[in-house]
Amino acid sequence: MGENTFPLWLIPFLPLVGAFINGAFGYRLQRRFGEPVISAIGVSLPWISFILAAIGFVKLQGLPEGQAVISQLWTWVEVGEFKVDMAFAMDPLSAMMALAVTFVGSLIHIYSIGYMHKDDGYWRFFCYMNLFMFAMLTLVLADNLLLMFVGWEGVGLCSYLLIGFWYKDLNNAKAGMKAFVVNRIGDFGFLIGFFILFWSLGGEWSEAGYRTTGAFSLHFGSLPAMIDSMATKTLWGVPAPTLVGIFFFIGAAGKSAQIPLYIWLPDAMAGPTPVSALIHAATMVTAGVYMVARMNFLYVLTPTAMTVVALVGAVTALFAATIGCFQYDIKKVLAYSTVSQLGFMFIGVGVGAYWAGTYHLLTHAFFKACLFLCAGSVILAMHHEQDMRKMGGLGKPMPLTRWTYWIACVAIAGFPVASGFFSKDEILWQAFNTDALLIPGWIPWLLGFVAAGLTSFYMWRSYFMTFTGKTPEVHGHEPEEQRPAVTGVLVILAIGAILASFLGLPHLWMHIPSAIQQFLSPVFGAAANLKTAGYGHGTEWLLMIASVGVATLGLGIAWWLYRGRTSTIPERVLKTFPRIHKVVYNKYYVDEAYQATAIRGFLGLSRLSAWFDFKIVDGMVNGAGTITRAFAWIDGAIDTYIVDGIVNLVAQTVKAIGARLRRTQTGRLPTYLAGLVIGVIVLIVLTRFLSDVYG
Amino acid sequence: MPYHTTSTLLTWITFVPAIGVGVIGLLLGLKPLLKLKQGTLDRLSRLLALICSGASMVMCIALWSGFDSTNTGIQFVHHAVWIQAFNIEYFLGVDGLSITMIMLTGLICFVAVVASMPWGLPKENKEHFSRRSVPGYMAMILLLEMGMLGVFCALDFFLFYVFWEIMLLPMYFLIGIWGGPRREYAAIKFFLYTLAGSMLMLLGMIALYFASNPTTLIDGSPCAHTFNLIKLATENDFGTAGMLLGVAFPKIVWIGLFIAFAIKIPMFPFHTWLPDAHVEAPTPVSVILAGVLLKMGIYGILRICLPILPEATVWARYGIAIFGVINIVYAAFVCMAQKDLKKLIAYSSVSHMGFCLLGLAAFTSQGISGCVYQMWNHGIISPALFLITGVIYDRAHHREIEGFGGLAKQMPEYSAIVGLAFMASLGLPGLNGFISEALCLVGAFPVFTLLTVVSVLGVVITAAYYLWTIQRMFLGPLNQKYANLADLNWRERFTLYPLAAIMIILGVYPMPILHLMNQTLDELVAPLAAAVGL
Amino acid sequence: MSHVGLEHFLVVGAILFTLGIVCVLTRRNAVAVLIGIELILNAAGLNLIAFSRYGGQSLEGSVFVLFIIVLAAAEAAVALALILAIQRRLKTVDVDRTDSLKG
């Protein structure tokens, strides 16, 4: 045990224990002792993980820069030069992620106590949630790519289980399956990226083929030093780093819901709201961003992949924002908002501003979790009604929910008092200022800038539609504020959304690099050499003011159109452009397009294969059988009628002859005697005759 | 160097089931004499089968603990002259390749015997396979076990062939007598297919025998030719042999042997016997069929084709890889369209065995270890899947995926186990299937770049069909027809839980198995890799 | 009258033989057939004795004839017994009606 060892493995392991206990005995525990026992196990273990992560964080602070806290368990897989350890490591990036995941995750566990109250599957819910914590923490704390992939798929599995948590409704189950399968498509990219990485690190192509060159490692700690060796290699005519970068990004796009694999996330809202908050907003969906940030040393080698990441992120940010403007389901709005915000993060990590992208990830975890949990609170109050058109005026009966939602809206819309502004604006500035891409930096900036304005609009729209206007009655009751387990969490997250600002106060204001940038710099050392366009402080100020301006504009329009829900303008505008509205409202028919092309093609291909297998391949086998039997029949016929026929013919001839000859046997003595006499005479004559002839 | 007898353990492992067969036969013969009741006889033969397969399994563990994984030679040798006139020897031994398979056989056969017990079945279900002609059934299972163990232990080609054929017969009867409605068709299809393969193997074996160099038997007597697999590999160079039927000798022999083994794998397009055999076979027989029998094909290729005919193997490697990828992707697509759960799982076996072919053809350490580890993992996962199918079939008396729905509510424990087994089969990281698939692909990627990319598609499709199955069977509203299905009983737990535990343990800590084989397999592919210039 | 020579015996024998044959072929009574057979036998015996007398002066012919006489007696006994049995079973001794061996 060296200086920098610490039982990091306990951090993911404890929630796993919780998942196991609740999974194996939860059903009986819940029936015997009731919900408190379940939640005591399910909630306490993530909190212990949080404390352990905090201790690990403190330990990390005591280490020299560039070192990580390591927890080496055992050799996981070792075949030839392919050696992967079961090991966990905590460097600044994973420390930040682990703290965020355990903190936000544990809060949402507490919230779930209230939200899932009186659900039959209470125990199951906490089992899955703990399992998710295990997978997510494995993902962020893994010391190497392969172990990270365990967490990567593990969170996908938990997401599947939790989206389909209320599986009795087949639509929920289908949404879960969609999420898993789309994620798998992303993983297809991830795996191929992984193979190319392994290939290009571990060996050389020669005239004859592939030759391994010995030592290499998949550890994140040692990868940056080795990565240069792959820069010169090409596969299919493309440089290896570019290929790896793009394939990894396909994986990231699947997990983090980017175009074209974003389609699962809106459907994933079928899960219970704490799940949407934890998995589909705060943690799992950011795994793709985390992974790109983690592999920053790879991406800086390849402007092509960086451009792809930044551009896809920017397009997704804008695209999802436009859909978000026209949704009525409050969770759908938040879902598209998440897709859009993830796009912002990818702009950040795509243009090489890794710390900014990661910072936005962190702030987003707070404010989006807060938004979702507020939405959950509203949905509970509305008895599982999610349509905003049927809400309104909820601010009065639910003040805590209202004000926390308001704070989170301020944060996400980008007003310079809460955290969202600092992270988003830093991303946009870095995008504008970059010169490391194949395209000028203002393109992703512009897309992001417009998206930011739309974000402000649709978030405030949802706020006004939900909390202002006339309070509706639900089942004859006034909607009520939720229990403290729910509201307390909202308050903490809202405070977090504000306080997170202090981690990233811009350089421009403080004249020192922000805390988060400094903290993460050992991990993102490779990004320091990226080219910038070199715009000055003046430009940065200008962009900052523009950002605030566009956010205010969004707020203003939302205020004008939706405040108090009295204006009829939105209705009239929509009626004026029914077609456009229909297309956007139906999410540009992307799902339908996929259904019509990919899924139908896929199912058709599978049916074709099955038909081919049954009719052609097996048909040939059975045909061979039939032909053999036909031959056998012919053979049998030949045998019966020809070969055996000849034998029988002989016998029958003999028989026929015998039948005629037997007439001679009269049985009467005289006949025989006459025959005897005639015979003797004939013999005598013959004797004479022959002796005459041959004499 | 000649291998002299060092241990008789392998003989014991192989023939302990045969003792059971003998005793059951004896009991049957003495039944009138001892005035045994049919019920007593049934119970006795069940007990005997449990004892014999259990003893074999325990001895396999002893074998494991005594095995030296750093030694790439043959261990636990039992070597004697068998038929002097034809230079046939009785030669048993294990190396890193066969030990995993022997252990797997011991384990899976025991699981299958336990699964053949009628414990927990409703009394009125008299037509269940576990209640029909029990002594004969148990004798057949034990005979099958003996044949399989013999194949994995044998190092004399003739002995190998004899055990290979011994396996065939009990399987035929097990499907043909205790099987489902179309059992005769399936049994005959299985039998003819395998027999056709055996004929090719017989020809190949004889060809190799007559092309081999003079050597000596273990007792020192000289012989003109040999069946000894080790000597065939080390003392002969068939690459220089002449033409046969206008084709280079090693190539044509290789093709014959390969087809013989490919039928057992089963490799596209020789795979159609498998779904039929599986669908008709009783659950424990499917367990053995999927768990052990399918491994014979790859094992044969690794044991015979690779070391004895390296040139031909190198020559054919693209073909093997292409067929491997066809297996993976094509069978996965076929799986999507299946309606019968057991047929789906049968096709998924075809798909998963494709990874073995792909890994094997690459001649890299990762590929070959992945191949054998994939065999092992498939040997753990697919028996679990077939047991799962048996559970639902025993209760609902059908296996139509669409006919269920919402079972998760009714059978939570069962659903959890199904979920775990499906996840292991679709290669969820952290479970054992992932490691071997990843190793196969990692090993194959540098050599067959595009093919590997295509085969990764299979991973996506696999996820799709398994999840779709889960959705159709377990999720959604409960089908009221099945509102009184019972969850797992103790017998089913006893068979499923160990397999589930192995899936998890070998997913996070696979080295115990990988260690056993790494060295041997490296040595096996090193000359081949050198031959292609890697 | 000339000397009685071999030819005379042979002629008598031939006549006897012919009579016997005719008797055998034409008569329907089994006893008559038997008598015909006796005639044939005696004709043969006559020829043998004649050749013995005029031939090589040996006794072989006489021995043959003695045997034939003995055999004829035995044969007549057996044949008469058979005829009796036929008579008992079929109530007839007509050889035309005893055709149960008909093929």
List keywords for this structure.
heterotrimer, B: 534 residues, mainly alpha, C: 103 residues, Helix Hairpins, 0% strand
Strand composition percent of chain A: under 5%
Helix vs. strand class of chain A: mainly alpha
CATH architecture of chain C: Orthogonal Bundle
Class of secondary structure makeup of chain C: mainly alpha
Number of strands of chain A: 6
Shape of chain A: elongated
What report would you give on this structure?
The complex is a heterotrimer of chains A (695), B (534) and C (103). Chain A has helices spanning 10-33, 35-61, 92-115, 122-141, 145-163, 170-202, 223-226, 240-255, 264-267, 273-282, 287-294, 296-299, 303-324, 330-350, 354-381, 399-413, 419-433, 442-467, 484-499, 507-510, 515-520, 537-562, 569-576, 578-585, 590-661, 669-694, and strands at residues 69-79, 82-90, 203-205, 210-212, 234-235, 238-239. By secondary structure, chain A is mainly α. Chain A has two domains: 1-143, no CATH class; 144-585, no CATH class. In chain A, the strands form three sheets. Chain A has a two-stranded antiparallel ribbon. Chain A has a two-stranded antiparallel sheet with strand order 3-4. Chain A has a two-stranded antiparallel ribbon with strand order 5-6. The mean pLDDT of chain A is 84. Chain B is mainly α. Chain B has a domain at 316-534. Chain B is built from 20 helices and six strands. Chain B has helices at residues 9-34, 38-66, 96-115, 134-153, 157-178, 183-211, 229-234, 249-264, 273-280, 283-308, 310-315, 317-336, 341-362, 365-396, 407-410, 412-425, 432-444, 449-474, 490-508, 511-531; strands at residues 75-83, 88-94, 215-216, 222-223, 243-244, 247-248. In chain B, the strands form three sheets. Chain B has a two-stranded antiparallel sheet. In chain B, α17 packs across α19 (490-508). The longest helix of chain B is centred in the last third of the chain and has 32 residues, at 365-396. Chain B is globular. With 103 residues, chain C is mainly alpha-helical. Chain C has a single domain, classed as Helix Hairpins, CATH 1.10.287. In chain C, 75% of the residues lie in helices and 0% in strands. In chain C, α1 (6-26) runs antiparallel to α2 (30-54) and α2 (30-54) runs antiparallel to α3. The longest helix of chain C is centred in the C-terminal third of the chain and has 31 residues, at 60-90. Chain C is elongated. The chains are: A mainly alpha (695), B mainly alpha (534), C mainly alpha (103). At the A-C interface, α26 of A face α1 of C.
